[in-house]
Specification:
The protein is mainly α. The protein contains five helices and no strands.
């Protein structure tokens, strides 16, 4: 291994770790999403600093060319990241469907109240409780919108 490739491996691994930590610090990445990237960065750093560990691990598993172990581990980590994202996407779809059904039931209930003979008068906008858009409230400096 040449000195240039040795230094390149270490610098690349450190850059991965710096990017992951910086994304965490700026809250562009959540901790649960950063776990696999952090593990990948640490493995790359270990393999970069101690290249003999890569050869040892490849020999232990029975892989003749150590770079194939790097590709295998990389593909495995990408697979796990995709699996985690698919799991969270499924949860979000379920929550979105539940929320849409609740809103539809609430609208149906409001329409029934407005058209039923028991109701003396239909619900007007001024009498209905304000609906606050929580997505807007999460941002500092924004004003809540009442409908």
């Amino acid at each position: 291994m040449s000195v240039a490739s040795y230094v390149f491996g270490i610098v690349s691994a450190v850059m991965i770790l710096i990017v992951v930590v910086e994304l965490l610090r700026r809250r562009h990445l959540r901790e649960r999403h950063a776990v696999w990237w952090f593990i990948a960065g640490l493995l790359a750093l270990v393999a970069g600093v101690f290249p003999s560990t890569l050869e040892w691990a490849a020999g232990l598993i029975g892989i003749e060319v150590p770079i194939n172990l790097v590709f295998f581990v990389s593909i495995t980590i990408l697979f796990l990241v995709c699996l985690q994202h698919s799991s969270e996407l499924t949860k979000l779809e379920s929550k979105t469907r539940t929320l849409a059904e609740r809103v539809a039931l609430m609208e149906l209930d409001l329409r029934k109240r407005g058209s039923s003979p028991e109701a003396e008068k239909p619900i007007t906008r001024s009498e209905s409780p304000p609906i606050v858009d929580s997505a807007v409230d999460d941002h500092p400096g924004s004003q809540s919108r009442a409908r």
